Amino acid sequence: MAMGSRVLALYHKTSNTLRSYHPHLPKLIAVVAVGGGGFVAYNTLNGSNTVDPSVKKKRVVVLGTGWAGTSFLKDLDSSQYDIQVVSPRNYFAFTPLLPSVTCGTVEPRSIVEPIRNIMKKKGGDIGFLEAECFKIDPQNKSVHCRSVKQANLEGKEEFIVDYDYLVVAMGARSNTFNTPGVEEHTHFLKEIEDAQNIRRNVIDCFEKASLPNLTEEERKKNLHFVVVGGGPTGVEFAAELHDYIKKDLSKLYPTVKDLVKITLLEAADHILGMFDKRITEFAEEKFQRDGIDVKLGSMVVKVTDKDICTKEKSKEGVSSIPYGMIVWSTGIGTRPVISEFMKQVGQVNRRALATDEWLRVDGSDSIYALGDCASINQRKVMDDIADIFKKADKDNSGTLTVKELQDVVNDICERYPQVQLYMKNKSMKNIVQLLEESKGDNEKESKELDIERFKSALSAVDSKMKFLPATAQVAAQQGQYLAKCFNRMNECEQTPEGPLRMRKDGRHRFHPFRYRHLGQFAPLGGEQTAFQLPGDHVSIGYSSQWLWYSVYASKQVSWRNRMLVVSDWTRRFIYGRDSSRI
Amino acid sequence: MAMGSRVLALYHKTSNTLRSYHPHLPKLIAVVAVGGGGFVAYNTLNGSNTVDPSVKKKRVVVLGTGWAGTSFLKDLDSSQYDIQVVSPRNYFAFTPLLPSVTCGTVEPRSIVEPIRNIMKKKGGDIGFLEAECFKIDPQNKSVHCRSVKQANLEGKEEFIVDYDYLVVAMGARSNTFNTPGVEEHTHFLKEIEDAQNIRRNVIDCFEKASLPNLTEEERKKNLHFVVVGGGPTGVEFAAELHDYIKKDLSKLYPTVKDLVKITLLEAADHILGMFDKRITEFAEEKFQRDGIDVKLGSMVVKVTDKDICTKEKSKEGVSSIPYGMIVWSTGIGTRPVISEFMKQVGQVNRRALATDEWLRVDGSDSIYALGDCASINQRKVMDDIADIFKKADKDNSGTLTVKELQDVVNDICERYPQVQLYMKNKSMKNIVQLLEESKGDNEKESKELDIERFKSALSAVDSKMKFLPATAQVAAQQGQYLAKCFNRMNECEQTPEGPLRMRKDGRHRFHPFRYRHLGQFAPLGGEQTAFQLPGDHVSIGYSSQWLWYSVYASKQVSWRNRMLVVSDWTRRFIYGRDSSRI
């Protein structure tokens, strides 16, 4: 089996190679004997029976080394493509542990994996360029990049990389909602450097509060930690910080420990809004017990070097609170290079790059986008309703029989997942039942359906369209999915495996991307973590469970990372967290 | 015994306390019954038999948390003093492992120990201020300090700390010899931050060399690592870097690995000049085998953003070499605050603060200096020769008998260690023999010595005066020594234990500081380390031996640090060094 599939892969590779070299050759130029393992390739042009190794492979350029980019890179068959990775970070970071890094529970190097390690393991034609892409040029199929370090490059810090396929996985930046002062005075928590800066700054606040001559009020101010945003990151940071202060810092800074205050500001009515109500309640109660001041319905309107100004939902006017340090974690915004590119491809007023269900950027043939910088523009049933009807009505009778419907129902459900979600929601078994429901009482006996009935039966399904959250899990699955598509590109071009095309002939090459939710977790400080698993399963368990979680939910985390994190935990267990300001 | 000494300590503490409160009280106000453990203190003023706890302890201010400061702090009895530590770094760093940090063999946090951890373990009145001392004011017995972080302090970032005793242990800065461009374009290797920057920069150089469009010459330039200074630090860094590149980076950057070059510039005729010739030769040969280009007799005259300009001893003119990165490690210079203080106390044209043999700053009563910022000004025998003679000549006869000499010989040898060194060098058994040597043939029978003979006998001993090297070992021993003196300050004031004062009456309070050389080690990359132990013992062994060395030579390294370093080595052994640019 393995032998057979390897030979098959070789066949595809060969035929692809030949095709790209001699595009007008008849398609069947390679005769493959599968089974016994024999392999003969007839090159009809020059009679040679070996493949020219100088034939150019398609160039895939991957922008970004986050969850999406790395997961794509890990699964991509590097023997089929000439791969170039461009990213300002030469490593992948396991971001869910970033809040732990802010307090030294885990060391930064334990949660990163150098991209070149991954490349070395894969082998093949992979290059890495430590640079930032600042312009995508779809006309010329190239990206403009700039090295992150300019010194010693003699004006060669900018360069152009050409691509046949471009995979945009540049992630997002922190969203400030254009609140004045946020960029200058707060800490984000998206990158390793952010976490390191926060760690240093927490210690700075304690050291400053320990200096002589300060009034008690000034000490309190320096020890007022404000977290803006009650999402998983903000909540975890607040919880970690509380734990760090209680277990370690209060012993090292006994004179000021009682002046510490942690405030969590959330504009909505609850923290952890995307989680089950039980988890939200548990977290809010725990924070209250811990003395973390959770202010709900509180919107930040301005940040100065001294105060953070908020507007409460329930009150008039703006109140100012002095702070020692602010961590800003209110969701994600669009990177300038992505906004610029969106303008070029005619996408405006969007947060992220729109792609089709195959992760291909709308309006572009060879550009794919995934992860936080992209969002899938799920096609509405109602937009295609006439085409769907026409496709199903094979005999062009103007009505659909049950038989006709059953022939296309799988394709419809695959192409428009909202149909299935809608039926699941209404506890319907199949599409026939859905159509039955729409019939009037006097039509119950009728076996056929006209376009109007069909329309009205499906009229509500689009309400069930789902947008995917901007999470590591989605990004990782997209990367994996896209790599699989790339690996089977030639195979699927010849024998498409996707659903029927409704507006054209034939089938889509690939199955569309389908997200499989594996659950979410929200660490709540110290040893506690809340888990929300698919179905209705909610549990509050030990933080160490993330390890188990990482095993089952993510291929990104290497065993090296896991061992390092466990060794960090052991160190912390024995010696506490390090409070050196380095 | 333990009980007795504790009672004794309590007695000293009490009497000291009473004395500082009522300085004019007769000295014997406390009657102590040692042995049975009974303790009664009579306060003659108010008849109370308890000690007033509000009595102020003497304030000791320690500047610096390096080897000297930390070792002093660790051994100081915190129940006797009110201790204030001022340092811009809130941790102690085990600096001999800094070169290992530059390449990720060891993690920075594994070699630091937060000062507040040490304080917590000690207990007592110890405060830490994360600030830099920028002025010492001996007139007002205070130091002027500035917080290392200014934000949020409302103009209170500068403050004054008063002291009764000041311990200056601020270390030194890197010496640039005023070579233009060094500050701007090279990396020093003195602090943890330096090592972290170097680590990032090495990776930067490799990433830059991997960018497209560069000529081979430009790539070579980016991968040219220059180390200036062939001392232990420079040599170890060059060796570590070579090992890192060979074992790890060459696999991750296969396309550019052959363009790497390491050059070591040393102005003297040999590297590791302070070591035994066998070690120097071994290191030079090893570097040659490794392809590290060692340029001896090469002086750097200028550094620009592109080139490093050197003057060779053997040649005319200046040659320019393009570089990717320079690490500058040519010894130590004086910190500005120390230079300023030296001017105030009338010490000019010196590299470091001059102290007497008891580490007290010349010309100051309550200021001590140790470590790299200080140097002991060993008193010359010839300067005191008349006084020594007078002191020895008890009967004022104008001549010394053997008996008279034997009474003071120990004091002379303790006060002037060069006498002993001189005798050891000449293989003499005792001072009598030394004096015999100076006699003319016709005086051999004479039993007595006049001043002129005495002078001529000792005339050469001052040539054996030794200056202590600026090493961690010296600093640590000085800290320990000074702490012991401080702990026994009252005891020794009443019963001085030092040598006879030659120019005044009585004895010195304490024995003078005596350095005990425990050997030196110079890691030569990878697993190799050269050891030079006292006596004539030289060995080339495994790097892991530093651990053994640390156990026997340094109390500074905590078991926590040792475990962390071993765990780093284990990580590296399994996974190689991390090349992420963080």
Automatic annotation (TrEMBL), chains A, B:
Upper taxonomic lineage: Eukaryota, Viridiplantae, Streptophyta, Embryophyta, Tracheophyta
Domain EF-hand span(s) in chain numbering: 380-415
Protein family: Belongs to the NADH dehydrogenase family.
Protein name per the record: NADH:ubiquinone reductase (non-electrogenic)
PROSITE patterns, per the entry: EF_HAND_1, EF_HAND_2
Keywords: Calcium, FAD, Flavoprotein, Membrane, Metal-binding, Mitochondrion, Mitochondrion inner membrane, NAD, NADP, Oxidoreductase, Peroxisome, Transit peptide
EC number: 1.6.5.9
Membrane topology, record value: Peripheral membrane protein
